[in-house]
Each structure stands twice: as C-alpha cells, then as structure tokens.
Amino acid sequence: xxxxxxxxxxxxxxxxxxxxxxxxxxxxxxxxxxxxxxxxxxxxxxxxxxxxxxxxxxxxxxxxxxxxxxxxxxxxxxxxxxxxxxxxxxxxxxxxxxxxxxxxxxxxxxxxxxxxxxxxxxxxxxxxxxxxxxxxxxxxxxxxxxxxxxxxxxxxxxxxxxxxxxxxxxxxxxxxxxxxxxxxxxxxxxxxxxxxxxxxxxxxxxxxxxxxxxxxxxxxxxxxxxxxxxxxxxxxxxxxxxxxxxxxxxxxxxxxxx
Length: 258
Known about the structure:
This protein is α/β, with parallel strands linked by helices.
C-alpha cells in the first residue's frame, strides 16, 4: 500500500474494479494520470504538482490506475493495457459529471492520455504528454525484461540494469509486483503515426533533455498538428517529474486554452 495522500481519497467502480481518486479545488478541471509503478501520491502530490495546479485556480482530479496505489489489483493480463486504463479515465470523467477536462499524463500515463484523447476527443480540452516523446510510437522496449525483474524472488536476483531500476522503484513505491508484471506485459499496444496525427485536442509534449526512456519530443510533435514542446533541461525520466521548467511550461500551455 502506498503512502496515504493528504487529499481525500474516494472510489468509484469502473468495469467492475474499484478505482481510487481524489477531486480537489475549483475552477477548470484537470485530470492527472500517473506513470507505471507510481501513484497519485508519488507522481503528483509529492513533486508539488497538485499544490501548483490548485494555486493556479484549477480543480485537480487524479486517479490511481488499476493495479496501482489504492486502486484494485487484478491478476489477468487482459485487464491491463493503456487502452483499457484509458477507459477508467473516461469513466471517471463521466462519474464526476464533467463535460470535458484538461488531461496530463506522465510516461505510461501519457500513453493512457493519448488513448483517451483519441477515443474521446470531445472530453479532452487539452492533453499534456509528460515523459513520453516518440516512444509513444516506437515503444520504450524491455517489457519482458522489466516484467521478469518484477517477478524475481528478490532484487539480488535481477541481473540487468533496466530490470533493477524498475524493480527498485516498484519496491520503493510498495507496489504489487505481480499486478505490475501483468500490466507491463500488457503494455505493448501501439499507437501509430497515422493515429496520433489525427489527435484533436491541443497537445504539449514535455521531456527531459537526459531522458533515455521517453524518445524525442520534437519527433512526436512533428507528427501532431499544432503540438508544442516543453524542454526540461538537465533532467532524466525520474527527475523531470517535479521540475520547475516542466511546471512553468504546463501552466503557460493551460493559460492559452480558451
């Protein structure tokens, strides 16, 4: 179980699973979707995102993806995948009675946000892809390596640097390793260049300059009509999350929305 959020956690039922979320503040709503092996607490509360957005006069909504945080865990591979979790996000928007919301996802959450934006463009006012550039199309690779590392008896049994990095992070977040392994194995659903080129909501792509996972922000932006890029100087995949340049770029992007 993850550290409890200082914000009031609620639950709703999505496709038969209990999904945890919080809903704080007033103003234009923004839905936050965290990355793999993370949670609302780890991805958005601790790095200061929620406070930043609340101070900017926004209604902040964030959910723990299925298999993560306080949300229900399931042990069927078919129950995971970014396109499936995008359904949970869409149902949360419906559950809250919102016409539409700005959406921001980080890493796996960015992929979920893309599926949400493509399948329900009328519900997404704008979308920010954090920590994922052309990897959205190419894939980030290493799924089996990471899943095997999560299934290993101990961290000492993991021999690869990529596997150890993800296993250590999952342990630090006190995640359900079995659920995460299944989630990782289900993460090979791709988005094509042709599909992402049809993205309708205004898009911002924010990637750290030393991020070796995300892929190029510029290459992805070149495919999406009107997409903007936020460069996060000197930050890798982990350290970019709470960076002030990332926050400033997102606030400026949101301020431009009608």
